Amino acid sequence: MAAQQVEIVEVGPRDGLQNEQTPLSVAQKVELIERLAAVGARRIEAVSFVNPKRVPQMAGAEEVMAEVPRSDAVSYIGLVLNRRGLDRALEAGVDEVNVAIPATDGFSRRNQGCSVDEMSDAFDDIAAAAADAGMPISATVSTAFGCPFDGETDPARVVGVARRAAAAGAVEIALADTIGVGVPHQVADLVGRVREVAAGARLRCHFHNTRNTGYANAHTAVEHGVAVLDASVGGFGGCPFAPGAAGNIATEDLVFQLERTGLPTGIDVTETARTGMWLGSALGTPPTALLGRAGVFPAPHQE
After folding, report:
1. Is 205 tagged catalytic?
2. In angstroms, rounded to a whole number, what is the distance separating the alpha carbons of residues 33 and 179?
3. Which of 54, 132, 150, 267 is the most exposed place for a label (fewest CB within 10 A)?
4. Which family does it belong to (predicted)?
5. In the Cβ-directed half-sphere of 226, how many Cα atoms lie within 13 Å?
């Protein structure tokens, strides 16, 4: 029997950059995306169609999409939060759109200026318009494991958001540990609960390593049948509206773990680590990923 393929959604160009102090130029963002496609990333969250006054690191989305290399092998994802964002994404020519729907009102009001119910209403509208345009849409349920403002997240809230998003047409539901507080037993529990109410949608997980649980959580998700994981090259990222929420799980470290477990990803781990180091130089911040420093094992044979 062939080993299970784990798909990595590379979120470095969006979630990886949005919380960094040094904004990259359009040319640097395009180079980052080119490098990621070259190492084997086949789904890349490339841009965010949010107000650049609120998240200046995400400025230039249309310019980036106009310059990235196009290939049937690579799908570019754009984050949108409202119909205006969707209209921009469609005009820019993304291949997929993703919408973040918080599971807690405290985070939703601070991050998106509305309640969870209001954001779910917005998703219904966005999903209907995306369907009319033939655009695949996914929903990321943020603060699924805990909220910096409301504390512990009730799993029933996550289930409710996921159920409604799936009913509205989401082809994929992502469970996001926005502030990095989840632990493996919560992952197993929540994946099982959401699978029951969103049977028509793929499940994806998005983990932060803020408290050093992200890789264990990713492994648990895969053990429970999740075949799509988000990761950010170099381990960069975090939410600018979630205090202390730094550190996406790093693509290179995750790929190393998966490949050593016998789970192929199609991503060149060595070149990804080099890209993480390149990005760290561009940002003036060392990557949190460890593989770029430690190297792969076994080490490549040297003639």
Report:
1. no
2. 25
3. 132
4. Belongs to the HMG-CoA lyase family.
5. 31
pLDDT tens, position by position, 144-174? 999 999 999 999 999 999 999 999 999 999 9
pLDDT of the residue at 1: 36
**CA 268 to chain CA mean position, Å:** 19
Residue whose entry in the numeric block shows the structure tokens 């062939």: 2
Positive or negative CA dihedral for 106, 142, 19, 92?
Answer: negative
Domain ranges of the chain: 7-294
pLDDT > 70: what percent of the chain? 96
Pairing of strands 137-142, 172-177: parallel
Looking at the structure, give the CATH architecture of the domain made up of residues 7-294. Alpha-Beta Barrel (3.20)
